[in-house]
Amino acid sequence: MITHKNISIFFIFILLILNLINLYVTIHFLWFLGIILLWIGINAVGSSLISSNYHVKAYCNNSSETEKKIAITFDDGPSVYTLEVLQLLKKYNAKATFFCIGKNIETHPEILKQIIDDGHLVGNHSYSHSKFFDFYNQDKIHKEIIKTDQLLEQFTPGKINFFRPPYGVTTPSIRRALKVTGHKTIGWNIRSLDGGTKNQELILNRIIKRVSPGGIVLLHDTGAHSVLVLEQFLQFLQQNNYQVVSIEELLNLKAYAN
Ligand SMILES: [Zn+2]
Q1: What is the pLDDT of residues 13-66, one digit of tens each?
Q2: Active-site positions?
Q3: DSSP alpha helices (H): ranges in the chain?
C-alpha cells in the first residue's frame, strides 16, 4: 500500500543503495536530486488527496453499497446560509452531516443547535480552518480539535467522533494528533468545488456526473450559490430515486461516542 511510511522506507532504501554503488562507481548527483524530487512529489500528492490514505485512513465512500443511498456533507459552517440549507433538507426529507469550524460555532451557536434539532449530524473541521493548518505541529492541531469538540459537544448527545481536515489535506502531524484523539477521518468521493467557482451549472454537472450508490458529496453551507445548487441537486436525487442518508448510516460508523 502506498502510505507515507512505506514510501519513506522505499526511498531511504533506494538512496542507501545508490550511496553504496557510489562508493565504487560515481553516480551523477542529478540521479540523487531526481529521486529526492520524486519523493517530495509523491508526498505532495499523497498529502493533498484525502482518498489516498497516504497519512491518515479516510472514509470517502461505501463502495459495497448497492442501494441508491448517498450522503451529503457540508463544510465550513455554521453560517447564515446554513439556515437555508436546513430548510431545503427538510423539504426533501434528507439527512446530512455538517463539518463545522470551531470559531463559526462561537459566532452562530443557535444555528448549530438548529442543525442538531433537525436531526442532522455534526463533525469537527478544526477551530481556525487556517490556511497554515497543514504546517501546524501536532500540539497545535490537537488543541484545535479539542477546542472544537468542546464547542460541538455542548449540543451533541456524546463525544465527537468524526473529523474532516481543512482542505482535505493530511500531514504526519495531523496523523499523530488524530491518533491521540481517536477521531475517524471522513473524506468524500464527490467534490463539488463550490468553493472555487460560483457557476451553478458547472457545480451541478460536476456532482451529478459522479453520483453513484454509497457516495459522499462535499458541499459548503457558506454561500448563496451553494444553496441554489443544493436545491437542484436534491431534485435530481429525488427524480433518480436516491435516498440522502447520514454518514452514520452510509458508513455504519457512530458520529458520537459515549
Ligand atoms: Zn473546509
Answers
A1: 999 999 999 999 999 999 999 999 999 999 999 999 999 999 999 999 999 999
A2: 75, 220
A3: 4-24, 29-48, 82-91, 102-107, 109-117, 138-153, 172-181, 200-210, 224-239, 247-251
Question: How many residues make up the chain in this entry?
Answer: 258
- Tell how far the Cα of 49 is from the centroid of ligand 1, in angstroms: 14
Please say if the pLDDT value at position 131 is more than 90: yes
Å from CA of 3 to ligand 1 middle: 24
Query: Is the domain defined by 58-257 classed in CATH 3.20.20.370?
Result: yes
Nearest one of 231, 250, 223 to 77, comparing CA atoms: 223
Separation of CA 136 and ligand 1 centre (Å): 16
Distance from the alpha carbon of residue 77 to the mean position of ligand 1, in angstroms: 9
Amino acid sitting at position 9 = I
Domain boundaries defined on the chain: 4-48, 58-257
Residue 208's pLDDT is what? 94
Is residue 123 predicted with pLDDT exceeding 90? yes
Regarding beta strands 58-59 and 162-163, do their DSSP bridges make them parallel or antiparallel, or are they unpaired? Answer: unpaired
